[in-house]
Structures
1.
Amino acid sequence: MDTNQSLGCRELIVSLEDRSYPIWIGSGLLPRLSALLLERGISNGSPLLLVSDEQVAKHHLATVQQALQEGGYNTVVHIVPSGESSKSLTHYEACMTTAIEAGLDRKSTVLALGGGVVGDLAGFVAATYMRGVKFIQLPTTILAHDSSVGGKVAVNHALAKNMIGAFHQPEAVIFDLETLHTLPIREVRAGLAEMIKHGLIWDEAFSDWCLEHADDLVALDQAKLAYGIYMGCNVKAQVVSKDEREQNLRAILNLGHTIGHALEAVGQYGELLHGEAISIGMVGSAELAVLLGEDSQLVTYTRRILEAFGLPTSIPSHYDTDAILSAMMHDKKFSGGRTTFVIPTAVGQVDIRHDISIELVRSVVDKLKGESA
Amino acid sequence: MDTNQSLGCRELIVSLEDRSYPIWIGSGLLPRLSALLLERGISNGSPLLLVSDEQVAKHHLATVQQALQEGGYNTVVHIVPSGESSKSLTHYEACMTTAIEAGLDRKSTVLALGGGVVGDLAGFVAATYMRGVKFIQLPTTILAHDSSVGGKVAVNHALAKNMIGAFHQPEAVIFDLETLHTLPIREVRAGLAEMIKHGLIWDEAFSDWCLEHADDLVALDQAKLAYGIYMGCNVKAQVVSKDEREQNLRAILNLGHTIGHALEAVGQYGELLHGEAISIGMVGSAELAVLLGEDSQLVTYTRRILEAFGLPTSIPSHYDTDAILSAMMHDKKFSGGRTTFVIPTAVGQVDIRHDISIELVRSVVDKLKGESA
Ligand SMILES: NC(=O)c1ccc[n+]([C@@H]2O[C@H](COP(=O)([O-])OP(=O)(O)OC[C@H]3O[C@@H](n4cnc5c(N)ncnc54)[C@H](O)[C@@H]3O)[C@@H](O)[C@H]2O)c1
Ligand SMILES: NC(=O)c1ccc[n+]([C@@H]2O[C@H](COP(=O)([O-])OP(=O)(O)OC[C@H]3O[C@@H](n4cnc5c(N)ncnc54)[C@H](O)[C@@H]3O)[C@@H](O)[C@H]2O)c1
Ligand SMILES: [Zn+2]
Ligand SMILES: [Zn+2]
């Protein structure tokens, strides 16, 4: 059952025993926020902390505040600057100060209104305020269909991303697709890259569906988006339910990420968005697969679907191959010159290979650069 | 079975399903640390982070380092200043920096060598480094028999103590009683106050045993200490096993703490040690019990046992009653003028009462002050 009649939206239950929770996806959910919180047992007896960023707040804070006020919720708002730099211990401490000053107690709830940055920051606050309080995600980016499922929350350390964090599952993810209308188009496409990834690793039919409806999705057709985000969350939720603490299976979610992370680093985390970088990385994984003996149709298909969404499929020519490889070796351990890679074996299927040599990766990187020369 | 023959020490298993772990208590355990780590599956394949404070390091770091070196462990050491002010986000971040620079990975382990301050700080680092790594406690104070059991880890916020933290169970607590010989005598007595508390809330026979062996315990008789700490940990572990996430039963561990915390605050966290403050608080709880109709022998017994350990039983006369009451109201919610208190009903038994009026507490505070006039 993927719709909740009484709530009038799509519903997906993430099954994690006593930490199971629903993801609600639909248009116009934020104005009904109070009712949805009550549905999850969040009463107005204790103050709430709402964390958001400047861009998101400009467009959507008023709606949320009004909805909370109608429900009689006593809410304190903490706004951080937009962008990755807000995922820091400094902003984390500032959130804590706001929470303490507002008298949040152990029965309070932290709400994240925003993309992955706000979700990760506010989630880590929720995980550790008084040793853990309730947490609700209100995603406003397409990428956040990925980041809001799985319970990973974190801030960055000056020396490395996502180094400081916890696993903390939300009480609910409430995804109002209306908020996406104000999202910059580059962010839309980049977020869709993770949706495509979810098809490529797990579900050929969904992947084909994405390819077929690329234009509608980029144009934010609400019904198509509701289905696509539902399916994307569903793949992630299934993988996470089977491997909550990231022991093994969860690694398949990293398709395209080994090369992708290296490209983000070489571009100083400013040139390429995460989704753009993994788009190129997914082509790289397909190229690797073909070098390892898989059908060359894998590359053709991967390129076709990403291009349909206007996503990049080759490495910018000014990116230095050695710099990319050394960023990758910094990120991943190449022990004995070999490392782990997620490799497609068919559309909707991947394998985790531990024997990928640095030379093979180099030839793929060269290939991906050649295309853009 | 409370001894582990092959390890040659007392052993207590804290039962928490898949997070169960042993507490090993004995003399001369630190020189054998490598063998004990191996016993818990801590291999020397990944670097360790050892956190300690200046005082503790001066006396005991060399022993630990030599033991780890013999086991082939690659260890990075992070030393913080002694005292409560090291339980801060600033020192937490510095620990993280040390860990990242030393290349700690997800299979690494954090060790805490010290009292409750180092245990709480290092434990929070372990709980959140890369979303959680393994943690080992090496307690060096008597109080740490309390703080090292239960999985509560935290740092302080400038506005309030223990506000930022997590629940993170250790892989093992390795309590080498030899380290206690360098502990200042005031700290010895204060730590014993928590041991006495464990008798008073749970086990009359153990309480009587403490009273009988007060002098031996204060003199750090190793066999008596081993038994006392074993029994103290045992009470805490039983309570915690039944209520890991602090839903209800765990509240009984707060005997003496409502008044105690207020006294610490009024003394600006410098005049009274925590154990001294709760010593006075436990007398207060007994006085409250008598006002509520319990036998006055409760007060006599409570005073007698605390005095046998040289612990304070009355409020310093320069502490202002109103200041104490307002600190308490800041700490606890008096809703409708009533609050929750742990009240003894017999030696080894307590009740949680939610109907204690502020007037009743005031009369007890006055009584405790009168004694010191
Ligand atoms: N926790 C996880 O499992 C997980 C998974 C993937 C990514 N992440 C994290 O997510 C982060 C990236 O998330 P993101 O791409 O959502 O970035 P983001 O939160 O920074 O949002 C991207 C930009 O869009 C703006 N924005 C967001 N919603 C908007 C809206 N509706 N209208 C107008 N502007 C809007 C933001 O202000 C920001 O400038 C990274 O920090 C990454 O590490 C976490
Ligand atoms: N996590 C929990 O469940 C829990 C429970 C109770 C208390 N606590 C926390 O524990 C802390 C208090 O612990 P504590 O009383 O052990 O304080 P502590 O760690 O500060 O140690 C007390 C003093 O003794 C010194 N010291 C410690 N061991 C020594 C040794 N063997 N030789 C010489 N000097 C030594 C320390 O340097 C310090 O100056 C507080 O922060 C409190 O919040 C936590
Ligand atoms: Zn990603
Ligand atoms: Zn205490």
Note: The pocket of zinc ion (ligand 3) is lined by residues A 194, 257, 274, 278 (CB under 6 Å).
2.
Amino acid sequence: MNPSNLEHLWEEVRELSFGTTSKIDRLETPPSPLHFLRHYLSQNKPFILSATATRHWPATTLWSSTNYLTTTLSSSLISLHLTPTGHADSLTPNPTNPNSLCFASAHVQPTPFPEAIHAIQNSVKGGVVAYAQQQNDCFRGEYGALSGDVDLDINWASEAIGGGPEAVNLWIGNEASESSFHKDHYENLYVVVCGEKHFVLLPPTDVHRMYIREYPAANYSYSQETGKFDLELEIPPRNVPWCSVNPYPSPENKEKEMSEFPLYYNGPKPFEVTVKAGEMLYLPSMWFHHVRQTPDSRGLTIAVNYWYDMQFDIKYAYFNFLQSLKGFQEQRCHKSDSHASVSYNDSDSLIDENVFDDDENHLEMTLTRKAHLF
Amino acid sequence: MNPSNLEHLWEEVRELSFGTTSKIDRLETPPSPLHFLRHYLSQNKPFILSATATRHWPATTLWSSTNYLTTTLSSSLISLHLTPTGHADSLTPNPTNPNSLCFASAHVQPTPFPEAIHAIQNSVKGGVVAYAQQQNDCFRGEYGALSGDVDLDINWASEAIGGGPEAVNLWIGNEASESSFHKDHYENLYVVVCGEKHFVLLPPTDVHRMYIREYPAANYSYSQETGKFDLELEIPPRNVPWCSVNPYPSPENKEKEMSEFPLYYNGPKPFEVTVKAGEMLYLPSMWFHHVRQTPDSRGLTIAVNYWYDMQFDIKYAYFNFLQSLKGFQEQRCHKSDSHASVSYNDSDSLIDENVFDDDENHLEMTLTRKAHLF
């Protein structure tokens, strides 16, 4: 697709939301509910809130002590995600055809918390990488014993949105783990408690730059005996639409990636923002994000994020329309047959289908479905 | 353009904003600033507020007395808009070529208020139709003597938006005057004080259904001596982009209009809403609206509207992208030459140009420019 109109859209969103600076707003004190709604949530615009906002959290001091954590959670079984690469929910060579890619999910091992912390601190790429994360409201479940250490909601956000968070999730990892580009159907308030997280952000209007394609779902399984991972495609087969772009390709892949994903590499620079200990990022719904982390001195990065329901409104309708355009234009410009027929060999059409399914069902979406939705 | 994706967009906005009822919300009491921001302004979604909200306005009783109005404004000169048809800022046969249309503006006659009221009450289509309206904050200017009779701002809107109205306008007319389809770059709170106003509303996502085309600007001039109107094209020539659709074509034109504007006539039904005396309509920025009126027993419809600045945010960027698509797709699908060249015989390209000019300049827009912008 000739991207001239899209390029204008990408630039205009940046100009309108961030002016000439292209810098994400930094607030020293929490916004009022009105200010948050008017300037950020309604405009689908991110900001960083300084650490003063969480200074009153016991977690900001207590969680620096591994001993405190292991004692408090001594009897907790938590969901530990194991991969050989540190890339869970990410694209990996297809085990049945190494020239193609699949969407690989981690081996999830219920693990006593003290063991889990040990595994995380000893994570090494190429060996076993452990990441404690489960996007199913795990903080109020598996980690309930820590619930007194943080605010159970972000009060100005709850007041603005008119209700508490639908999910609160805890993340404990080290530099070996990263999250590939994706978006969530939630308003996300992301607090780093220990270490740092490094986000690469793109607005929803950049959807064509992410090259969302369908990949067969696969799952890692890890054997305690052999200490080896096995990766197998799901049976029955299932396709997952996922971003094809990796913002940090290896030097030997860089050129290939740049020629395969020109809209990403030739378009406006993504927003890069580091969230330090105690700081909070407002990550607006539908924004694409890639996340890396730097651990603290003992080798841990710990974060808590609050997922609030988003409004499925005119912005969401505009997004679905935008995402559907590529397939549409190919049909209009290059296909003589009816646009009604959807070829399962045409990833664009599949993406359209997915968008519309997603939309039709959004009201009944379950937490799990939403967390994995594209 | 094949409208299958557009049709989905039109339907989805309706489904998301209005569910299956397709009825505009009706509030019995004013929303809190948070409720207004969260459920209406942020979602670009209209509502009607019941007359209880303006019961405390002296205007709701005082303005029913023509004597009160003429006494209070006995020494005021007001801008009276005169046309032979009751259609100002509207499409009319081109005086130099009756087979084409032009964009005709009214003859604006500074008139002592008591005379103006007399002219309005005696307005007849085909003779002289007088409409007291001037979208330049006229209520706080020409009609300043009435300013104590209404709230000078809508407090919950001012608090939500973070400032007072940029313009407050007064409208006094009768059934002979109507406003053709257009949109404004403002959040609009529209209060009918006497009589009724009948709105036809379409969301911004329906822009292609309005068939916005360029028309040469023309102006009526009225001669007191002859009692006749003259319509002349502006010199130097100036084009105005305007909606081509008339929701109430005469029976003899109906068929022609339906074949000329299929997206309007075959798309989802527009929203029709009547605002009664004392009621307030929240007309979100960028919504297309057509307005007719029914006078009270003495032959007058009186309304006050509050224009608040809109946020030029991601919704606005999406709108500009959507509006630009038609020309773009014609270039992609039907034109082999570069999309960079803009033909001044191609109304689509002109519309795109207009959108982008408008966007580049929106920060410096003057009140007058905004009021006439498409």
Note: The radius of gyration of chain A is 21 Å.
